[in-house]
Structures are given as C-alpha cells and as structure tokens.
Amino acid sequence: MKATMKKLRHNTGKEPDPRRYIGRLGEAIAEKFLLSKGFFVLVKNFSTPLGEIDLVAQKDGCVVFFEVKTRLSARFGPPLSAITKEKKRHIVRSCQYYINRYGLHGNSCRIDAIGINLDAMGNVRLLRHVKNAVETDY
Question: Quick one: CATH architecture of 2-130?
C-alpha cells in the first residue's frame, strides 16, 4: 500500500490535498480490484465538460463506467451515500459524452459504483462493488 501512496505522490509532482489524495488512492485500489475480477481497464480519470469518470473498464463485451467513493471514517456515512441524485445526473451525462465521443452507441454499457472504507493506515477495511448503481433514466 505504501508503494501506491508514494507513486501517487510522485505522479502529481506536489502534495495533493487530502481529499483528492484519498480519492486517487481509492481509485488505485478499485483498479486493482477490477483487474483481479477480470476487467480490462480502458481509461482512468476521463475528463468531460460535465465532470470526470473515475474508471472505464470492459468485461465480457460490456463497457462499464465506475464511480469510486472512498472514506477514512464513518463520520459522513458510507462511501456510496455520497452519490446524490445530482451526482448521478452528472455521472450519466459524463458517460453519455464518452459514448458519443467514442461511437459506442448500441454497445452494452452500465454504470457501477465502488465504495471503499480505509483504516487510518490506508488499508482496505471494506470494498463494495454495486452493479448498475446508477440508472440512466435522466
């Protein structure tokens, strides 16, 4: 885990703010988890005019967009509780932007979420993967 933290710090060239740092650490943990489950990661931190898609991966012909939420404590509730209705709207629009940009119309796609709880040392206490966490009814 420490090697991952060092690598993240090195890649930015400066010390990131704590929230961004925890978020990037969670995304790295999620990526490793997805690879272990047979996903092929296509893109990390894809920026759109509407926001960022944390991870885009593919498995069994399905393109899966991932929203990753990471928490160090339960003070603000479980990680996935941070995905509000407004956040879901932004996620859907960002995914639509990606689909349009890469001509993925007609392909099987879904939006999943990964919630990660870390202890004070940055070790994973709980990782929860929710398939179809965001419905595209907007």
Answer: 3-Layer(aba) Sandwich (3.40)
- Give Cα 56 to chain centroid, integer Å: 8
Residues 6+ apart with CB under 8 A from 81: none
- pTM here is 0.83
Q: How confident is the model over 36-50, as a mean pLDDT?
A: 95
On the 0-12 / 13-18 / 19+ scale of CB atoms within 10 A, 136 is middle
d(CA 7, CA 137): 38
Residue extents of the structural domains in the chain: 2-130
For the cut 90, the answer to whether the pLDDT of residue 122 exceeds it is no
Reported as a pLDDT band with limits 50, 70 and 90, residue 17 is confident
